[in-house]
Design a protein that fits this description.
Layout: E1 14-22, E2 28-33, E3 40-41, E4 44-46, H1 53-65, E5 70-81, E6 91-100, E7 112-118, H2 120-123, H3 130-143
Parallel strand pairs: 1-6
Antiparallel strand pairs: 1-4, 2-3, 2-7, 5-6
Protein name: DNA mismatch repair protein MutT
Cofactor: Mg(2+)
Domain Nudix hydrolase: 11-141
């Protein structure tokens, strides 16, 4: 069988990053996006070739909400395997960080439909995707 006749390689899991970001007033940024079927989450996206996880997280925040991050710390890794919450079939490794920003001025890109700066307790009242809910619950444990 020649290379041209070989079946296509199966898709691979995507490595994605996101962060729960604390602003200067002590509240956290959550966003409603097109990619999570209207549920609320945190900004983030795919890691590009040659990027570190932290660099990818900082780039995604600049692209999606025009915020600069600092003091990133790893929290957890979650798996989203063909989640019906996501807008298309995907197998993602979601690498979550906590971070800080010095500004609450959000300039959204086309993916962001709405945003809010809220306390962790208030965030749990929003219709969050399950992965963001897990991240916020973990952040509350770490704050305690």
């Amino acid at each position: 069988m020649s290379a041209a006749e070989a079946p296509p390689a199966p898709p691979r899991p995507l490595v994605c990053v996101g962060a729960l970001v604390r602003g200067p007033k002590g509240t956290y940024l959550i966003v409603r996006t097109t990619k999570w079927r209207g549920s609320w989450g945190v900004p983030g996206g795919k890691v590009e070739w040659g990027e570190t996880l932290k660099t990818a997280t900082m780039r995604e925040f600049r692209e999606e909400v025009a915020l600069e991050l600092h003091d990133l710390s790893y929290v957890q890794t979650q798996e989203a395997v063909l989640s019906p919450e996501f807008h298309k079939p995907a197998h993602m490794l979601l690498i979550d960080f906590l971070a800080h920003t010095d500004s609450e001025r959000v300039t959204p890109n086309e993916e962001i439909e709405e945003w809010a700066w809220v306390t962790l307790a208030a965030a749990l009242e929003y219709p969050l995707n399950s992965y963001t809910r897990t991240l916020i619950e973990r952040a509350r444990e770490l704050e305690a």
